[in-house]
Specification:
This protein has about 220 residues and is mainly β. Helix content is about 5%, strand content about 25%. InterPro entries: DUF4232 (IPR025326).
């Protein structure tokens, strides 16, 4: 008996059917004719689960003691009160000159400043002044400070006053006329409060200031 050799079917090679590195592992195995049994023997590591969120401590959600809370708009918060008292500015004051003692050619008056504002303020020390003529022009003025009383801090509530004592003479000095007024008659004073630069106007009803406008004045006091 003549034996027959088994017929082997030769299939043509198809280029690109199994390309190394071009496809994923499962597709490459399937495309190359691997059976399900061959796949079942392979170990595929499971995907790692995402990391769990870290627990947040309850104390971390609260602001630290002494920390400043955040507000939506700090500009809407009311301003904090302050204990500071401002200096009495010229715009806060009004003035008068009140007649004092007189005798033997000597004249005295009290230059009074009143707190005409609605705010408490302070005065300290000496002020300045200038004699003003009827035509509004400055007149010769020579103000000298005297030490008694000296400077002291004065607190003026609204409506309260402080004064400086002024002294001058009605007796002509050398070089001044004796048969007519020794100096032009002032109409008012330009008064500068302590530590200010602006002046306020005060009526002057006391006639000429002899000695070429020489005056002396104390610090403001109550």
């Amino acid at each position: 008996m003549t034996s027959r050799r088994p017929t082997i079917s030769r299939r043509p090679f198809r280029a690109g059917w199994c390309t190394t590195g071009a496809l994923l592992l499962a597709a490459a195995v399937s495309g190359c004719g691997a059976s399900s049994g061959e796949l079942s023997g392979m170990s595929i590591p499971p995907a790692e689960p995402p990391p769990a969120p870290e627990p947040v401590s309850a104390t971390a959600q609260q602001p630290e003691i002494g920390s400043t809370p955040v507000t939506e708009d700090d500009s809407e918060q009311p301003a904090r009160p302050t204990d500071e008292t401002t200096r009495c500015h010229t715009s806060m004051l009004s003035g008068t000159v009140e007649e004092g003692d007189a005798g033997a050619g000597q004249r005295y008056a009290e230059l009074v400043l009143r707190n005409s504002s609605g705010q408490t303020c302070t005065l300290y020390g000496y002020g300045g002044l200038e004699l003003i003529g009827q035509d509004g022009a400055p007149l010769p003025t020579d103000l000298e400070r005297v030490p008694n009383p000296g400077p002291a801090l004065i607190t003026l509530s609204p409506g309260e006053t402080a004064s400086a004592t002024l002294h001058w003479t009605a007796v002509p000095h050398g070089g001044e006329p004796v048969d007519q007024p020794c100096q032009p008659t002032p109409a008012r004073l330009a008064v500068i409060p302590p530590d200010e630069t602006d002046s306020l106007r005060v009526d002057w009803p006391f006639g000429p200031v002899c000695g070429f406008g020489s005056m002396d004045g104390t610090a403001y006091h109550q």
